[in-house]
Amino acid sequence: MTTAATQSVLDEHYERNGDQAAIETVRARIAEAGVEYVYYQVVTLTGRVVGKVAPATELVRNVENGLRAHPGVMADLQMDAAGVLLAASPERGECVVMPDLDSFAVLPWDPRTGFFFCRMYEPAGAPEGAGGRPMPLDARGSFARAHAAFTARTGLELRSGCEPEATWTVPGHSAEHVPGTPHPMYHVGQLEQLRPVYQKVMSYGQELGFEMIESNCEGPGQLELNWMFDRADRTADRLVLHRLICRQVARELGASVTFMPKPAENQLGNGCHHNISLWEGDRNVLLDPGTPGLHLSTTGRHALGGILSHSAAAAAVMAPTVNSYKRYVATGQFAPQEINWGMDNKTCAVRLPASGRLEVKSPDAMVNPYLSHAAILASIEDGLKNSIDPGPARGSTDGPVTDRFGTLPLALDEALDLFAADHVLIQGIGPELTDLFLRMKRQEWARFCGAVTDWERMMYGAEGC
């Protein structure tokens, strides 16, 4: 038995999961759906879902005591150039994996299977007094704690909605656009060719509690399927689930889907714009009551100033792959390059499409949503604390637009250097999580630099000299 003075964060989670009323609620859902198996899943630093499966009959034991997993899974068991695991030594002890009871849901494509999202903790008795502490490499748990701490300090809650794009290849349908032909953006004929895809994805999303809203075909084979905004941690979970849904639908239809930021030179890039707002209770503080027209409150301007100030460094998180920067380089496709803002201007890095929300356009479809939201949250708090002025909007008559926020980096290595020097983002995401992210991504860049590509063979092969 622990006292209030000695109770660890893990002890608090044990206590929450011992709530018999909460357990009975889950058991009732399991019985109603006929669930026989349960996934206990965590999200890695690269946004992959990993976990364990157990019979539903083991529910009480697993939710009250947790499961165990090696922390190396948080880095996808990646190794450095010397063959050493990046996240933890093989000799390192396992962590406790604790399900969040309120995250339980049933797979719509197989009601015999349910799942929990989980958080990871150091076990009791861990060395150096770490027992019972949150495992710092758990991006999902880290963001939940960061958001709660932000709310405690400011009284504000971050809400968000994402615009995830994906490129689909279905039998008999090409994802390529032929130059000189009409662009099929929003074309209903394109939607019709992808009808089996969007219907299944939207249906599964609704069964998992997504409030699906307007969606569209942005280009050949590209779908953007949206759901209603919510508290940022819920939105992040739903984005992870959306990717799982898309992969399941692809398997069912014999299709393929990619979230690659730039699948090919003749295809549109896949973005994942984050639409954000700040709430104090039921009041959206980005709005100024009584102000007509498209506008942003003083609080909103300072939040925007913080986002712009850290956009260059945050690109490492928002655009986390080598391929991500090919989306930025491809001009004329609404991906940002300059770090600026505008009212309803799709060329800007951040735009105000409607009073009450800001659209951050740098994230792409391979973003880890817990890291991206943590970076946005840290940037916003810096903007609020230091009253950072975003300057006039692009195209505004309020004054000359300056380029004081610069441009987004155009390669992953440049982005990583900027990220490593931004102490606001490092503290907001967490020093240990940042360190692992940087080591993983610097190694990714090094592997890319050592790879020989088709472009190089074309340029410098037998016919290139």
Automatic annotation (TrEMBL):
What the entry lists under SMART domains is as follows:
Gln-synt_C (SM01230)
**Keyword entries, A-Z:** Ligase
**Which domain of life does this protein belong to?**
Bacteria
Q: Which residues form the GS catalytic domain?
A: 139-465
Question: Which PANTHER family has this protein been placed in?
Answer: GAMMA-GLUTAMYLPUTRESCINE SYNTHETASE, TYPE-1 GLUTAMINE SYNTHETASE 2
In which family does this protein belong, per the annotation?
Belongs to the glutamine synthetase family.
This one is known as: Glutamine synthetase family protein
What's the source species' lineage? Answer: Bacteria, Bacillati, Actinomycetota, Actinomycetes, Kitasatosporales
